[in-house]
Amino acid sequence: MKTVLKSKSREVIIDTKGPVVIIGESINPTRRKRLVETLSKGNFEYVLQLAASQVNAGADVLDVNVGYPGVDDAALLPRTVMAIQEKMDVPLCLDSPNPKAIEAALKVVEGKCLINSVNGEEKSLQAILPMARDHHAAVIGLTMDDDGITHDPEKRFRIAEKILERAVQTGIREEDVVIDPLAMAVSADPNACMVTLQTIKLVHDRLGLNITQGASNISFGLPNRDVLNSAHMTLSIANGLTCPIANPAKITALVRATDLILGRDDYAMRFTEYFHSQEAGEGSQ
Ligand code: THG
Predict the structure, then answer these.
(1) Contact 253, 274 (CB under 8 A)
(2) CA of 266 to the centre of ligand 1 (A)
(3) How much is the pTM?
(4) Domain covering 2-276 assigned CATH 3.40.50.1970 in the classification
């Protein structure tokens, strides 16, 4: 199954057979106060720097999240999208729980973006799915619903199935639904990663859809986050994860290595090219 995303003139194909597509996570104000400060003043220099450094480090798509207490993201998200696409030719993932912010950003985004996100709640399905259809966007479906977050992989799977059914009924193509099995902090729940890994496998085996996750979520509150994120990333890819939202500066090398091991990188071309590009200093900004 192939999900095609587009910027002004470039196309990124997320294929369930791989190789893995990296969605850069860093345009996100969580612990990045400077991002909100600069954006609120209409200064887009820092966000453009985050965009360029992530692309140089291996991001294929950029997640754009400007949500922060006190920020009107229905106004700020479209302005940020415009600033990024004026300088960069890379598909975007519009990240907001606020349907009004998504709608405003869809009006200005070029190409075919990924909406982040819809979930199984009735009001979310009704607000987001028609927008995705009307703007020919792909959409991430979070496996939670009106009952909240379940810790049973079979139940998360059933929510994924429901989101897919509703999307198709609305007029969205099956390949434009990308499922998020919910990656949560393993410091808070020792079983959190296993539930996510099992959900990935069920969605991969039974629905054959592309799968994303906020991969760095799992290591919140723990030391040595990079090692934990890397171990979880490899296992997730082996189970069917195809387009993680992650920090490319920290994860691209491991993703290239995993694709190579899984037989998705003929003659180690992508693996080798990545190392040469980083040696040449592209990733060091
Ligand atoms: N699913 C979907 N979208 C999501 C998430 C998800 N969007 C937001 C989030 N979760 C994924 N994005 C991030 C962004 C940053 C971090 C984690 C997840 C992060 N930042 C470092 C920190 O907080 O310490 C700071 C900077 C860094 O080291 O790069 O961890 O689950 N669909």
Answers:
(1) yes
(2) 31
(3) 0.97
(4) no
